[in-house]
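Example 262.
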Amino acid sequence: MLQLAASSILGLTVPHAPHAPPRCLAASRAASPVCVDDKSEVEEYFNNEGFNRWNRIYSEDGEVNAVQLDIRTGHGQTVDKILKWVDSDGRESLSDGTWCDAGCGVGSLAIPLAQRGATVVASDIAGAMASEAERRAADLGLSERASFSTSDLESLSGEYDTVSCIDVMIHYPPEKMAGMVGHLGGIAKERLILSFAPDTWYYRALKRFGELFPGPSKTTRAYLHTEEAVLKALSEAGFAPSRTEMTGTNFYFSRLIEAVRQ
Ligand SMILES: C[S@@+](CC[C@H](N)C(=O)[O-])C[C@H]1O[C@@H](n2cnc3c(N)ncnc32)[C@H](O)[C@@H]1O
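Predicted structure in complex with S-adenosylmethionine:
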């Protein structure tokens, strides 16, 4: 419990070095080492163990432990804050525009958006997550409003009025974050909505403390980002912040930013 409390941000394990290089494993004496990059690791994780874990966390009735319940609550608050923005803007602005949800997971945001009348094009690097989102949307009769596919967000193309990317940046090392924001900015006509685990002295201290207690299982590496760096990346992509929110429970920390094209 202490380990989880100390080293989990959004429920994922934080890296031991702030700029962790790809993990390289000695294949054999003769062969060169095999290096696993973050994206392959994330894809593999969310198609297997991560799918089982996060599908439960992102379900109202999935069986979860106390920490996972706290993360479910925190994540639900982030989604609710976005929906509150959407509702306060009025339903017309939603039904008139197109919405791309990149790294959609099991559809926690895409589905309520479709229920509110949005046309949502959602995707995830992990086919297991995207398929579960598609199944959930179909069960609710939303297949016409929301489509789901498997894609790395940096391979997405087209143009959408709004592009959202919620709790995905945690999988991006700081040196790759601006490229990711730049790509999403390139497909967003008007608005970007992003969230990330903030790199503050408090969460850093929490992370260092957690490193004293080696955990039994490592999940994927997870990265914090400074708000300053994210705002700079948004500005370079041509976007300025318009609304922000912070959600912090015991085990879930997420800064939410809405930015509009300048
Ligand atoms: C913590 S979950 C958040 C899911 C969803 N955005 C939500 O808030 O419910 C992170 C998701 O990001 C996806 N992901 C990570 N890197 C990605 C990438 N490069 N392209 C697309 N999806 C990615 C993972 O597969 C996973 O489903």
